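FAQ

Q: What does a record look like?
A: Structure on top, sequence underneath. For example:
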């Protein structure tokens, strides 16, 4: 199976210097390695040409974020299996083999992710994906190995391949045909949550998204946009509303969005109490931008399948904050 690893870069010269060698060492015999540069203003492109001449370089004319950046780049990639990889990922020996084997063996496999561990704390899962993602009854994303800010230590508890709802955009394997059939990444998201939206549509096609347990990578996380950046808060809260409006079938979507926005109001108060007013403002801006773009996003509902919401029955808000159940195995 012809495979491409496509690393999206924006002003990440130092990350490329640090992590690209491991990707090449562990993957180049099985895949073509691409770097898609998102109109960097540092010396990333010159550095790549000088130090990694065998890496395929794609130069986007603008920084369209994760979504548009990949949509533009992947139009220039011919391989049938695509691995979208963050520039702050360290791979391991043999990590790619189980992923390729899974896609070759399972014709209904649309997308997958490896086990994602924390580069800074290697014995722990990493926040952005851990051992595979799900949505709770209110549409909150969570992972095997990570619920809200509680991240589990990897003790082998998730060493089984499993069907999941969404695969992490940090290291996201997808058939090229499925990527385009599902509608590619929604460029209105810019960055954050767009992989959940895409996986929602992949599930709606009747295909499977999986976690591949015997494939491991290490992720730094927040290397481009840190967790304490209000812009990240803005994107996460706004894009969650985008994904719900686009993908939840029936009139239930409106009650669900109203409830989520009420809960967002509680988050605003929480940030105020914690002295993080910039994040409170970011949530309010997210709501305003959602209202502004409501009609555009609503038009995309015409393409959704009316075959269920794929939500888990549990509310992780209730389980986590009220019942004190902070591990995936306890909910």
């Amino acid at each position: 199976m012809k495979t491409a690893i496509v690393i999206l870069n924006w002003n990440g010269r130092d990350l490329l210097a640090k992590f690209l060698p491991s990707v090449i060492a562990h993957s180049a015999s099985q895949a073509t390695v691409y770097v898609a540069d998102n109109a960097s203003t540092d010396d990333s492109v010159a550095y790549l040409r000088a130090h990694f001449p065998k890496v395929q370089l794609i130069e986007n004319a603008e920084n369209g974020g994760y979504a548009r950046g990949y949509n533009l780049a992947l139009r220039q990639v011919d391989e049938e299996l695509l691995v979208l990889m963050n520039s702050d990922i360290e791979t391991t020996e043999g990590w790619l083999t189980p992923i390729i084997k899974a896609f070759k063996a399972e014709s209904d496999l649309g997308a997958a992710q490896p086990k994602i561990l924390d580069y800074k704390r290697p014995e722990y899962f990493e926040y952005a994906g851990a051992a595979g993602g799900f949505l709770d009854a209110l549409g909150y994303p969570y992972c095997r190995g990570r619920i809200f800010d509680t991240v589990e230590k990897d003790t082998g508890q998730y060493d089984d391949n499993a069907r999941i709802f969404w695969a992490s955009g940090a290291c996201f394997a997808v058939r090229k045909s499925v990527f385009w059939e599902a509608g590619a990444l929604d460029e209105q998201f810019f960055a954050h949550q767009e992989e959940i939206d895409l996986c929602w549509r992949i599930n709606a096609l009747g295909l499977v998204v999986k976690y591949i347990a015997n494939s491991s990578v290490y992720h730094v996380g927040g290397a481009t946009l840190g967790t304490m950046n209000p812009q990240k808060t803005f994107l996460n809260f706004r894009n969650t509303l985008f994904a719900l409006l686009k993908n939840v079938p029936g009139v239930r979507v409106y009650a669900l969005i109203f409830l989520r926005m009420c809960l967002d109001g509680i988050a605003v108060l929480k940030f105020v109490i914690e002295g993080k007013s910039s994040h409170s403002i970011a949530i309010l801006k997210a709501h305003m931008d959602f209202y502004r773009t409501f009609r555009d996003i609503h038009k995309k509902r015409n393409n959704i399948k009316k075959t269920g919401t794929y939500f888990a029955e549990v509310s992780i808000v209730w389980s986590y904050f009220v019942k004190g159940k902070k591990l995936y195995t306890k909910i």
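Q: Is there anything notable about this one?
A: The chain has a mean pLDDT of 94.
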